[in-house]
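Hi V.,

You were right to ask for the full record rather than a summary. Here it is.
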Amino acid sequence: MLSSHRTPVGDLDAVATGRLTAASVARIASAERSRRLLMFRAIAAAEPEAAVDDSPLPPVAEAFDVLAQAERFCPEAVLAVLSHPPVGVWTVSALRHLQDGGTAGHQPPSWNLLGYAHALAGAAALRSGLPGVLRVPATAGTVTLPTVGHAVFPDGPAGCDVALLHVTGRETATLSLGDQRLLIRPGDERPRARTSRAVWLPPRRLAWSTGTAPAPDLLLEDTDPYRDFRSPHAARAPLPDDEADRWRDLFHDAADVLLRRHPHAARMVSLMLRAVVPLPAMPRFRTASASYSEAVGSALISLPHDGVDLAVTLVHEARHSALNGLDHQVRLVEPPEPGQREALFYAPWRMDARPLWGILHGAYAFTGVAEFWRTERAALRGPAAGLAHFEYAVLRDALTEVLTALPTRHGITEWGRRFVRHLVEQTAPWRHDVVPDEPSSLARTELADLRATWRMRHLTAHPPACARLAERWLDGAAAEEAAAPRSVMRDTPLFHWPEPRRELRRVRLAEGPSALRAAPPPAARPLPYDRDPALLAVDRLLVSGEAADARHAYGTLLAEDPDRPAAWVGLGLALEAAGQDPASRALLRRPEVVRAVALAVRARTGSTPDPEGLSRWLGRVPGLCASGDHG
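Predicted structure:
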């Protein structure tokens, strides 16, 4: 069942340029199949040695044998099952569980977790027409056959049990749980029941519009227990019917946008993605999405605001999947040496500190997103066009910064540099694109805000040097004779939510400055993190264009409490709007130093120094705004 694999250079180039072919994707899929089979074999080999609780199911090795038999009947059927993205999530979960000794008391029970292998075997037998009787796991009266559908037995046991799957032909079988029996025909969209209220529910699908580029449907995967890699086997209910209908409508709109205006992106999405895992809705301008290296072909996406929102998210996640698949065959970034701490960097689209591989992943995904907005800004009208100009300008300038540095980073391989060269070639002409004044100005402010906020959260200025600066400030010494401290990454970088200012800028473009003045806009609430209402009110002043009022208000907040990182950055943006150099330069380029010195002064005197005065003084320290950067 296993194959050896060779990756043509053309496949790397096809992924890098976003111009995938069916042949290159087939090779990625074939390699993923072998990868999962190897992990499957490792699970089967480890199961007998682990202290797995008493199992009512056969060993995993028997499920492996069923897959091998089914492949002789119909190789395509087994490939479809093994390519199901949750399979990768399950293999990792099962291997980790077995490496921990298969300890009893695991929730779900160990045998139920490993029993997913038998569910896969049952799905493969049913799809291929391999006749026989298989034992498959049931959880809370539900039996899931990945890619095929799931059965719900309302009168079934509340915990974990075993069902019998009797396959009589291709896509024809009977499923029994206790004394309840259910005839299942996966090709039939109608529920089937016999002798009970049990129902068979086929998988939900998202259909591409039939046009010049027909493509396989995507699964709207809301039932597989391993669909969400963040919490494998989470007990989350399937979508309500009305929400599933909303997803279908949004996907229809997204497919229309992609097929009409983004043919290359549409092809990548249709070739790479097999499943969309729906997440709960988020506020506008905060769509959540995620992918996982062992779940190639899957995208976790929160319910989008509209079809354009879904279209750009699909482009983003399809690129992550393509790069994950390529990385399993070609090493683009060298891993750190054993015992060596992984270097972390700033990415202009994230608030956490990212490893080199994450920087490359982001650059690749956001090149596709920027290309999407580059086209959309010409197709849209009114506020929507202004918002598209803004998104494009932010990403274009962010990518210029990242792609300039990437080839020189330690750890990029020769193939990685070739990959990056394609991205540089694609984005190079973009620097000549004209962006209207308002979105262009807001984009520059956004990037300055992102970098300064990131520095506040992840960098620490050298404490003794900051204490000396505080002494010189208190002594009235000249800033020109002081020494600039260096900044280093914190020992334990943490995840942080983005600042609300990024959402407020988008509200301004979509609804106008007046939407920010009267009351907090819907996009800014509810926030997924604590936000001081007083600070949020000042942010709204700043983004709406009231920079002078915001400048005074930020200063007042900082005088009361200088340990407000977001307020220091906000003050820097307000001062920059007023042309106040060098104060704004110090606050936006080395905000962690300004804050550290202010806190040192307060610790010595019990009072906070004038925020603007201190920033202006520090801005005159030689080399302060040019040294100590952690790129």
